[in-house]
Amino acid sequence: MGKGHLKGNDSKEKKTEFSLVRVMGTWKCKLGHKVNKDTADCVSAAKIYESITEQGASWTVVSPIVFTYKVTETLHLLDPSNNTLLLGHITDPQQLDDIQKSNKPIKRFLVVDQEVFKIYGTKLTEYLEAHNVLYKILPLPTTEENKSMKMALKILEEINNFSLDRRTEPIIAIGGGVCLDIVGLAASLYRRRTPYIRVPTTLLSYVDASVGAKTGVNFANCKNKLGAYIPPAAAFLDLSFIQTVPRRHISNGLAEMLKMALMKHRGLFELLETHGRMLLDTKFQADNSLYGNQCFQAASQATRIAIVAMLEELAPNLWEDDLDRLVDFGHLISPALEMNVLPSLLHGEAVNIDMSYMVYVSRERGLLTDEEKQRIISCMVGLELPVWHAAFTMELIQKSLLDRLKHSGGLVRMPLPVGLGEAEISNDTPFEILHKAFVKWCDELSGPSESD
Fold it and tell me: Which residues are known catalytic residues?
């Protein structure tokens, strides 16, 4: 075969920066210093950079994309006197005023987890009818086993038959994290992006899935392998939904709260350490005579700290351009573990098992003292979370970390707790440390949790 030679490009390159200006309904490229804002209808934040050489021209488009979404705590979301579910996502006062004055009925398509619908279906229907809404409710079994493209397509078929306006009639998802993820993906696909609203009904989705931008379904036996980064128009958080959640699912959500506590907030860790059992007993509800106002204060403080901590990490990195993410703590090995043992482990349980092991890795690296390690494990046990699992093997650890190297820019990017409430990203934890931590972890914790 002949050999090709790359020649140096000594030709001159002419570069020009253009602003985009709309004048009389059409967009035009204008040299940056020649833009007259007095005569322009609008000047875009986008830029076009033109480069001309002897070989031809090329254009580089820089188009900033801004997403605005609301995360709103509310009480009694399904009370007919509360219009948050229908109008709470609107940020433009004029648009809100126009809708409230209009005689045109509101139209909404709602996807509701079928177990949630069994409990709240009548109340939801009465709410919609009280507001004269034209609606379609689609109850679905949104479990991890059913989190597939098949279910997303089923939702899309129903949306298409309902014929909604993709600009003014957001899809509403009411359920746990799986429901919110699937509906979010369906909304992102329908007519290339239809606004949607998240209403979490589990503690885990309340503090995790509802406040971010990720959507997705499982594919090829991998968790969330298909998905998009499209945030909702709004997420409406009503703690009263949590009162009908089984105790195990409260623990499941507490795992994600503990994750943020260990990574970022010692105060949240101490709150969970002190009041975790009370939060489990009361299911984050205020009207509990045994604990009184103490419960409301702890529940409100814990959820708000967890949500703010999550938003602090997600908002500046919504598309995960920066792969060093503290929110990945507990998510290096757990996705494979969760999928391998479906349906025996809930998401938060798998995450906690991962975190429990990583606590031992931190201890072996000298990032935690023995006392701190024991406090963390004791807190996990107090929150009724599993701290060990037989399927969490050294082989699974190695395979998961190798997969992570492939998808994280060649670095493992392992978040590890440093003391209580601080963390670092590690890229150089040797196999010897991982193995030594694993042996100690199994020796100390396998007994109490062998049945998990």
Answer: 214
